[in-house]
Amino acid sequence: MKTRPKEYAEINETLKKYRRDSIKMQTLATMAEASNNTETQCYAYNSLGIIYRNISKYEEALLSHKKAYDLAEEAQNTELEIICLNMLGVVYRRMDLVKPALDYHKKALDLANSYENPSPETKHSIAVSQNSMGNIYLALNQYDLALKQFKKSLVIEKEQDNTLGLAINYQNIGYANEAKGLLDQALSDYQTSLKYNNEIDSDIGRVICNNSIAQIYIKQGKPELGQQIIEKALEMALLEGDQFYIASSYINLGWAQNELGNYKEAENNLKTALDIGEKYSLKSAKVEAHKHLSELYQNKGDYKTALERYKDYIEEEETILNERNLQYVNDIILQYESEIKNNQIRVLASENELVKSKLLRNQKIFWYSLIALILIAGGIITVNRHRQLKQEKQILTLEQDMLRSQMNPHFIFNSLNSIKLYIINNEKENAVYYLNKFSKLIRKILIASTEKEISLEDELDTMKLYMNIENIRFSNEIDFQVKIDDNINTANVKLPSLILQPFLENALWHGLSSKKNDKKIVLHASKTTDDYVTISITDNGIGRIESEKINKNKLLKRKSVGIALTKARLSNFYKTYTSPYKIEVENLYDTNHKPAGTKVIIHIPIRSSVLRTA
Fold first, then answer.
1. Quick one: 578 exposed, middle or buried, by C-beta within 10 A (0-12, 13-18, 19+)?
2. Are strands 478-484 and 454-455 parallel, antiparallel or unpaired?
3. pLDDT tens, position by position, 518-563
4. What percentage of the chain carries pLDDT values higher than 90?
5. Per-residue pLDDT tens for 374-420?
6. 303 to 207, 252, 270, 300: CA distances (angstroms)
7. For the chain, which end, N or C, has fewer CB atoms within 10 Å of the first or last residue's CB respectively?
């Protein structure tokens, strides 16, 4: 070659047909080093990193990409630096190490956005970074924010007619929709991704898509169809040698077989996936394998082993998504978004100064006015931002207080103590039954505490578990009934998580705890208008007046802090709705005008109501 190409597009066009051959890329790196061709050497090490990554040799992949990055810095080639940073981020994401993955993708995006007129390759790097930021949002369970990032990336990939990029983004959009419970939409997204992967004849892409499609079928109650698809995907994954997707295929195959009752085959496949996860440090694979093994042993009636596997699942999951890591990532994302806004403001200020220097002599009054307007606008933006941050802090405080209320140490201690009595009394079936209920309740509370809203269906399931546990302490004397009118689709009604528990707790401890027999609580959901769903909680206890008298005479008084927290959360949640929430409390009396219980009525606005304009 008389001239050495320095742009990535030129180098890639010349060498792309060899980039999946590790021997040729290693030879190319050696030859490029000897001829002092830094850019080509960088390309060779990046290609080696991708080869190592695809066969799950992550440490070797990191070393190769870091060598490539050092060479890009040495050559002062920003375009290559961006590519190397994104490659490093992808490897760390595969290793489930969210923090360094986010650091590298953020640095790549900052560099790419510094270009005024980015090249097609730099635009592609922006798309890769946005896609990766979307994956970080997925890890935070912020599915709507993730979808925004994937769709931004999709726009660039469509502009560049990049079939691989389209396949990747539709696959990730499917992940987000599946997580939101939109299974039909997710299936359509996965099938679109599969179409693009077939166009480029990507076996690894077909493995990924077929695994995702099979998962949807299993969730839709079609495990036979899911098994057929996964078996083909596993064959392709084994040929590709990518341990990450081999483990995923074994997990999904074991899941499908478990659903079909083929426990022996399911156990073998799930343990194979677990071994791969252990060998290659694939944390997410270990989490999923332990989870499905726990379900398998529960289905087989081996509750002891099921509980052990469930503990392993929780322990592994905490190593990936602990509170500190999530808080760190949240802080970085907020910092990143703030930096983008500051950069935009600085760019606008520079442009204004340039125009001002040209027109200053003839337009002084205009510019003074403009500066005043900018200051006013900045003040308004600052005030609004301050107000928004204050509101977010208030919501976060309420959610933390709510979680502390639900996870009351006395409740946990008393529940475990009750289960312990079953064990002491050798009532194994009751102990296992209530331990299973208790673990599900704790998990639901922890999951619900991370969601801004949940469906009424999930809320009712959680309340049934709560009442089931509390009923142990009442010797199962409480007759708890849930009634749902036929005109309500509980899956579509949205409300803040865990708002019914304080009202049920009041009914138990203020209404029924002092009553001796015939203890009832009825939770009834009805819809009499288009604007509201009405939830009533009725107990046949001693009534509020008598309860207050008893409480005054107690040395240790129970404070209903949960009700105040619930009202504050409802106010924040429904402040943008046309119709506000309502809470009513009725004292019930029998035919002799004696107290016969209490009825709490909560009117929940329906999301389809017209929102207030800002």
1. exposed
2. unpaired
3. 899 999 999 888 888 999 999 998 888 887 877 776 544 444 556 7
4. 27
5. 888 877 887 777 766 665 555 555 454 544 444 455 567 667 777 78
6. 34, 22, 18, 8
7. C
Number of domains the chain contains? 1
Residue 443: pLDDT band (50, 70, 90) is: confident
> Is 30 a member of any domain?
no
In a domain? residue 87: no
Asked if residue 107 belongs to a domain, the reply is no
Of residues 401 and 493, more confidence is placed in: 493
Residue 497's identity, in one-letter code, is: S
Rounded to whole angstroms, the Cα distance separating 9 from 19 reads: 14
**Does residue 75 sit in helix, strand or coil?**
coil
Helix runs in 55-142, H state only: 58-74, 78-94, 98-113, 120-139
Structure tokens that stand for 71 in this block: 């060479």
How many Cα atoms within 13 Å fall on the side-chain side of residue 119? 13
Torsion region of 203: left, alpha or beta (phi above 0 gives left; psi -120 to 50 gives alpha): alpha
User: Identity (one letter) of the amino acid at 302?
Assistant: D
Global model pTM greater than 0.90:
no
Q: For 3, how many CA atoms within 13 A lie in the half-sphere containing its CB?
A: 4
Q: Is the pLDDT of residue 327 over 60?
A: no
Tell me the pLDDT tens digit for each residue of 66-99. 999 999 899 888 888 888 998 998 888 778 777 7
Burial class (CB in 10 A: 0-12, 13-18, 19+), 112: buried
Q: What is the CATH number of the domain that holds 481?
A: 3.30.565.10
Distance CA 586, CA 601 (A): 8
**Phi/psi of residue 587, nearest 5 degrees:** -85, 130
**CA distance linking residue 298 with residue 302, whole number of Å:** 6
Tokens of 376: 């006013």
533 lies in a domain? yes
CA–CA dist 60, 283 (Å, integer): 18
pLDDT for 522 equals 95
Write the CB contacts of 24 (distance below 8 Å, at least 6 apart in sequence).
Answer: 18
Q: Where are the beta strands (DSSP E) in 527-609?
A: 532-539, 582-589, 595-605
The answer to whether 567 touches 502, Cβ cutoff 8 Å, is no
Q: What CA–CA distance (Å, rounded) separates 10 from 14?
A: 6
